[in-house]
Amino acid sequence: MTQEMTVKQKRLFDMTQPLDDSGCWIWQGQVSNSGYGRIMVSDTDNTVKMVSAQAASYQQFIAEVPDGYLVKQSCGSRLCINPQHLMLLKI
Prior knowledge:
The protein is of the alpha+beta class. 18% of the residues lie in helices and 29% in strands.
């Protein structure tokens, strides 16, 4: 990353194992039964909820995830949270 990370961005990044060959940031935290990373986050009203690690990464590094969209990995790795590998998918 070329710019300084925020506290929340660093928290996410510190829970990954970056891979040099693919550029993936492999999630090392909790994993759901479907094989995707997940993490507890606080909303603006301090409500705590479980979200996918890729959605948390998208939100912290890119923008809010719009209603009606999911965040998917373009690299195909379910545990990757590299914002450069994330894309929105309309549901």
